[in-house]
Amino acid sequence: xxxxxxxxxxxxxxxxxxxxxxxxxxxxxxxxxxxxxxxxxxxxxxxxxxxxxxxxxxxxxxxxxxxxxxxxxxxxxxxxxxxxxxxxxxxxxxxxxxxxxxxxxxxxxxxxxxxxxxxxxxxxxxxxxxxxxxxxxxxxxxxxxxxxxxxxxxxxxxxxxxxxxxxxxxxxxxxxxxxxxxxxxxxxxxxxxxxxxxxxxxxxxxxxxxxxxxxxxxxxxxxxxxxxxxxxxxxxxxxxxxxxxxxxxxxxxxxxxxxxxxxxxxxxxxxxxxxxxxxxxxxxxxxxxxxxxxxxxxxxxxxxxxxxxxxxxxxxxxxxxxxxxxxxxxxxxxxxxxxxxxxxxxxxxxxxxxxxxxxxxxxxxxxxxxxxxxxx
Length: 376
Known about the structure:
Blueprint: E1 2-3, H1 10-25, H2 44-84, H3 89-95, E2 107-108, H4 110-117, E3 138-142, H5 152-155, H6 161-169, H7 177-194, E4 198-201, E5 213-218, E6 225-230, H8 242-248, E7 256-261, H9 263-270, H10 276-290, H11 294-312, E8 321-322, H12 329-357, H13 359-373
Parallel strand pairs: 1-8
Antiparallel strand pairs: 2-3, 3-7, 4-5, 5-6, 6-7
């Protein structure tokens, strides 16, 4: 590929410079690095030093992915168990806490709780992604108190996105006398939990009228199990989750309590020990012993992946050249970039031979890395 720069006028020369500069900059966070090598020129000696590190890292990531798949399977099994009724959300929560308590008069809603716990199924129903739904065990309680200030007329008989959005904008008449009565009720519930050793927090609900909702958790369950009370939780009427609406709507037109598992608890129960950190640490230590920087190692990995692809069509690598003597700062800058592109192309050609010599050992490793990096 020849670029006859001396035949171009200033405007065209500037355009080519801009295109080449932006093309090079795609690979860097900092455009000032556009003249750096994008490909490591591999050698047998360097590859011999790097190969044990590559093998160990690939093995570590394989273990990590296996552990991740196991965690997904466990999470999906919990989803299936709750969906089928084999596992009740409240019973599940009580297995992991001695502090699942509600004030007198609170009634558990098992069917509503089940659908709230597994509502993630709606997120992936029409998705092309092969992702199994998971569950967040959640126990929903009602007090059987009808809240007359709710603007039920906005919801209509059959809740749609339009009616739901209208209700969200104005869920209830905050000046209705029943709101003050429910504030007193919320205050009593607050006392119940604080007197039982729970921490109470109103800040997550500052977007709602004052003293109408709060979150709570027991100090022994912090970041593991939490709950909240709201005089009207309109999220249980979201038409995006029709099964939740069907099971919950008849019971939640007033104060409700929801107690649920935090993701930290789910992670501790369902996940295998995280070995990704130890894999990264082992890789760093191995590189130090081999005298290889982490940046160089990353470049070597990327260059090996590129070499494997180039080996399938080596003639597709074009080596740029130019036939002019740069006289301006712009042309000199362009010449440097073209020279770097040329060096990269020549390195890619040379790397194919190195890759082919180690193909049998490299291919399983590169398969692993391409999977981890989601290389298309």
